[in-house]
């Protein structure tokens, strides 16, 4: 018996079960088991229910959106934006504090002078 649990078959109470239904978990003996490629079942109903469930799960998996690439792109853009903002802040603060930042040039200096008036 699977999992080492002793129990009686649901159809033959005097016979020890050797399998458990993959769908509902009920114990069944070797005479009552309904074997299928996907596992052992207690009835055709459970086998068919499990097959429908498996087919639906596969369909949902196939139709599920694949957001992985888009999230990578968004994460890249977010990081790039943060880096640009930090660099711009450092340049503006350095210029404001009187350091000569050749990249900034006269444009930022004039903005800072106009803003202080």
Give a summary of the structure in a few sentences.
By secondary structure, the protein is mainly α.
Provide a descriptive summary of the structure in words.
There is one protein chain. This protein has 117 residues and is mainly alpha-helical. It has two domains: 62 residues, no CATH class; 35 residues, no CATH class. The chain contains three helices and four strands. Strands 1-2 form a two-stranded antiparallel ribbon. Strand 1 and strand 2 form a beta hairpin. The longest helix has 29 residues. It is rod-shaped and about 95 Å long. The protein starts with 18 loop residues before the first strand and ends with a helix.
Key attributes of the depicted protein:
two-stranded antiparallel sheet; 117 residues; mainly alpha; 3 helices; two-stranded antiparallel ribbon; 9% strand; 2 domains
How do the SSEs run, as a string of H and E?
A: EEEEHHH
pLDDT below 50 for ≥5 consecutive residues: which ranges? none
- Can you count the beta strands? 4
SSE-based structural type? mainly alpha
Strand order of the largest sheet: 1-2
Figure out the total of helices.
3
Q: What value does the average pLDDT take?
A: 83
Helix content: 40-55%
Largest sheet: 2 strands, antiparallel
For the termini, the CA-CA separation is: 89 Å
* Shape, principal axes of CA atoms: rod-shaped
Strand content: 5-15%
- Determine Rg (CA atoms, Å): 35 Å
Into how many domains do the coordinates divide?
Answer: 2
